[in-house]
Specification:
By secondary structure, the protein is of the alpha/beta class. It contains 18 helices and 13 strands.
Length: about 400
């Protein structure tokens, strides 16, 4: 998808009674959960920002002694398996789904709203059917007692319904009102017109702290809060580890792993941060030829990936695309931010960040060395931004942790 998602207009959430059959499904899960080990399946589309937010709950299920498997697209299997997870490839790659989405947006004969809807179907609808086929094969040999799926992974809900086991919706960031319309439209397009009605009755976990809750009716008004994470710590490149161990101030710069294909956007951000009074750790989120990148400012280190948790724990400033996981990860540590949204839900995330007083926005139309430099100077020079970020940090710290949320799924 490209552009902002707020064009969808108001949404009236669908209210569906939690009927006796659904209650019986949850009763069977509760009994299984209490009496001993259960089989728990986590499903996600193969995008980092959709899968990684579920890691704390996955770890909580593992600590509780359950048999846990993760299913996602083939391109995300290796990164998740490297974290010690039992991961299974299902459905298409993210690259192929994103290519289909870009083809939709290239069709100038359709209206922007129609292209948006078609893009949702290309990214999250059609691939979900392919994942469902593979999940059905997988679960014929290993039948889960519970299916936890990220909010836009429709295959998880479809599988849970087919197996007659409970499904749980796991947020990946702010739960925007337009989710109801997106999911309903995608369901109708793939021949599952009742998808939203079923999905809206599932138990739901919401990562969003109070200050970042979107305006409007909540798609899942009964969602239970669970504390977001900045990620899991890992192995740092030696030069980055040395920089973080120094007394210099640290800025973390990233444009994420989805809307990061424009190298010029990345180099513009780097050049703007050349004036930063400290060290800049920048991640490209993809393999980038040094010749394509060009000269790197003397105060910057550029890597493909760096464990976000290690960086954000130490960072004094976050300059990013405002993807949900990155934005919330920074706020976990009270880091003030400059938001450079590139598309998808990033403009809406950035607006919530600015509303909370924890950062400033540089809009896509105003993206330049000068505007980014000015925003960085203002955020680092005015203590009100850090104070606001730390206020949100304290809200996050007060949210139930993943172990508490997991235990709550059994009640």
């Amino acid at each position: 998808m490209t552009g902002s998602l707020v064009h969808l207009g108001p949404v009236v959430p669908v209210s569906v009674p939690h009927h006796s059959a659904a209650c019986a499904v949850y009763d069977r899960w509760t009994t299984c959960h209490i009496e001993g080990m259960a089989r728990v399946l986590f499903t996600s589309c193969p995008a980092y920002g959709h899968a990684l937010p579920m890691l704390p709950l996955i770890r909580a299920a593992e600590r509780a002694g359950h048999d846990v498997r993760v299913a996602t697209g083939p391109d995300l299997v290796a990164p998740l398996a490297s974290r010690g997870l039992d991961v299974h490839a299902v459905g298409p790659t993210w690259e192929s789904s994103w290519s289909a989405n870009e083809a939709v947006w290239a069709d100038q004969s359709a209206s922007e709203e129609q292209r948006l809807m078609n893009g949702v179907v290309a990214l999250f609808g059609v691939p979900a059917l392919a994942r469902l086929d593979d999940l059905v094969d997988m679960t014929s040999q290993w039948r889960p007692d519970l299916v936890v799926h990220e909010v836009l992974e429709q295959a998880g809900s479809l599988l849970a319904t087919r197996l007659g086991v409970p499904g749980v919706v796991h947020g990946i960031g702010p739960m925007f009102p337009f989710y109801a319309r997106l999911i309903a439209a995608a369901g109708a397009a793939i021949g599952e017109p009742e998808l939203w009605q079923r999905l809206s009755t599932e138990q739901t976990l919401d990562l969003c702290p109070p200050s970042l809750q979107p305006d409007g009716a909540r798609p899942w008004p009964g969602a239970v809060a669970v504390r977001p994470s900045a990620g899991e710590r890992g192995q740092l490149p030696p030069r980055v580890a040395d920089a973080l161990a120094s007394e210099q101030t640290v800025a973390y710069f990233t444009l994420g792993t989805v809307k990061n294909a424009n190298t010029a956007d990345f180099t513009t951000g780097l050049e703007a941060l050349a004036a930063y009074d400290g060290v800049v750790v920048a991640t490209t989120g993809r393999r980038l030829d040094p010749d394509e990148l060009g000269p790197v400012p003397a105060n910057a280190f550029v890597e493909e990936f760096v464990p976000q948790a290690d960086l954000l724990q130490r960072a004094d400033l976050l300059v990013s695309h405002s993807g949900s996981g990155t934005m919330l990860g920074g706020l976990v540590h009270g880091v003030p931010q400059v938001a450079l949204p590139r598309g998808t839900d990033q403009p809406e995330n950035a607006a919530l960040l600015v509303r909370a007083g924890a950062g400033l926005l540089v809009a896509p139309d105003d993206y330049s060395i000068e505007s980014i430099t000015a925003a960085v100077a203002k955020v680092t020079g005015d203590p009100v931004f850090r104070a606001s970020a730390e206020r949100v940090r304290d809200e996050i710290a007060a949210m139930p942790d993943a172990d508490s949320a997991w235990a709550g799924l059994a009640t």
